[in-house]
Design a protein that fits this description.
Layout (H helix, E strand, L loop, with lengths): L10 E4 L7 H6 L4 E6 L3 H4 L2 H11 L3 E5 L8 H13 L4 E6 L1 H13 L7 H4 L11 E5 L11 E6 L4 E6 L7 E4 L9 H20 L7 H23 L4 H14 L14 H13 L3 H15 L5 H12 L6 H18 L16 H14 L7 H10 L2
Parallel strand pairs: 1-8, 2-3, 2-4, 4-5, 5-8
Antiparallel strand pairs: 6-7
The structure holds 5,6-dihydroxy-NADP (NZQ) and zinc ion (ZN).
């Protein structure tokens, strides 16, 4: 194992009936709150009323920014920064999924500087002293509730870029599994795919190729996510399944899966972001297309690890390493299809003539993330394997 420092400052309040604690928790960071949310799911499922009641009881002054879209936009972040500056906001509260939380983080980082917030995403400026962010999570997927990452789309250039800083880790995140009962089946599955993708990036793309404890931890998370997602396809209100998938998704990207692995690349994400940037598809839907393609591309270079994945996650114990690897890829791809996730570019009406454009977009992120081995030929090959 490589040396590591693991420091995650986010306080997690997990469980049923915990949303009412948000007011007192947020009040620890100031009186003026910017409440950020999406296109209305929290109004329809009653979470908005519960959050605002708790903020009111804590005598907080609330300014609202709503309408954050999935694959969140830079223009909305800019709107939030203006509100935060004009209302002397002390703390940003995100109530939603990854898109809302990522927007809240970008607002928190941008509200304390005078330069263009996009500079953070281009790697031109460092994040220094952001406003505190708190969250009430409503969708198990991104892990944004317990990490310092954020991904925003600049709609003028169609660039969807991710960046992050430990200082952006939420101060507190409330994870009430009942808040996710209303997530529709498609987004439940996309969320599961995203959490699995985070596990797989650490599993396959780390400097340390084998780490017994990290490998088994990650395999355990993947098995649990698949089981919980299968249950939720039949019983969307199953509390234990919602709780399991929520906690697994958080752990998949809060630093624990990364500990001791050295440098880790996120190539599947690097390529997926170009799909969701250009076609506005759900991040998890883009990943269920890219993961099988990446795995097929890596079949020769990562045979042993793919075979281990097949053995431990899908109990494939017979055959050569090569055949086990191939069967494991097939089983994961079949599972994506079973939960109605797209597995080919054409399933999201993405034309193979666009592969060059998608490759160019991916290269911008590859450069910023220093994924040097992913040259245009390799990215094109992976995208072609998704056809
Ligand atoms: O707009 P609202 O009303 O919030 O509706 C959302 C949206 O339509 C809906 N939804 C959320 N909670 C719900 C609900 N519907 C019913 N009941 C609920 N309880 O679901 C839709 C998708 O929401 P979104 O926030 O976009 O999904 P997700 O959590 O998957 O976040 C996706 C974004 O996160 C980024 C992705 O790139 C994408 O932009 N990521 C962020 C990461 C991070 N910060 O660490 C890492 C990830 O790899 C990922 O890249
Ligand atoms: Zn992801």
């Amino acid at each position: 194992m490589y040396n590591f420092v693991l420091e995650n400052p986010t306080k997690i309040i997990f469980g049923q009936d915990t949303i009412k604690q948000i007011g007192p928790e947020v009040s620890l960071f100031g009186k003026n709150v910017l409440l950020v949310y999406g296109s209305g799911s929290i109004v329809r499922n009653g979470i908005y009323d519960r959050v605002t009641a708790s903020l009111g009881d804590a005598c907080l002054h609330v300014t609202e920014l709503n309408g954050i879209r999935s694959n969140p936009l830079l223009s909305d972040v800019r709107r939030g920064i203006d509100l935060a500056k004009n209302h002397s906001v002390d703390v940003v509260l995100a109530v939603g999924g990854g898109s809302v939380i990522d927007s809240a983080k970008a607002i928190a980082a941008g509200a304390v500087v005078d330069h263009n917030v996009w500079q953070f995403f281009r790697g031109k400026k460092g994040i220094t002293n952001p406003l505190p962010v708190c969250t009430v999570l409503t969708l198990a997927a991104s892990g944004s509730e317990m990490n310092g990452g954020m991904v925003i789309t600049n709609e003028q250039t169609s660039a969807k870029l991710g960046t992050g800083n430990k200082k952006l880790c939420p101060k507190v995140s409330i994870l009430d599994p009942t808040a996710t009962f209303s997530v529709p089946a498609n987004y439940t599955a996309y969320g599961a795919v995203d959490a699995i993708a985070h596990c797989l990036e650490f599993y396959f793309n780390a400097q340390l190729v084998n780490s017994p404890v990290q490998d088994r931890f990650i395999e355990g998370l993947i098995i649990n996510i698949i089981e919980a997602c299968n249950t939720l396809m039949l019983e969307p209100d199953n509390y234990e399944a919602r709780a399991n998938i929520m906690w697994c998704a958080t752990m998949a990207l809060n630093g624990w899966t990364a500990a001791g692995l050295g440098m880790v690349g996120f190539p599947m994400h690097m390529i997926e972001h170009s799909l969701s940037a250009y076609y506005d598809i759900a991040h998890g839907a883009g990943l269920s297309i890219i993961i099988p393609a990446w795995m097929r591309w890596a079949q020769n270079s990562h045979t042993k690890k793919l075979a281990q994945f097949a053995e431990r996650v899908f109990q494939i114990h017979t055959g050569t390493s090569g055949s086990k690897a191939a069967t494991g890829i097939e089983r994961l791809t079949d599972w994506f299809a079973t939960v109605h996730c797209p597995i080919k570019l054409s399933h999201c009406s993405i034309d193979t003539n666009d592969i060059t454009k998608l490759t160019e977009h991916s290269l911008i992120q590859a450069k910023i993330w220093r994924l040097k081995e992913y040259n245009p030929e390799i990215i094109e090959e992976i995208l072609s394997l998704a056809s």
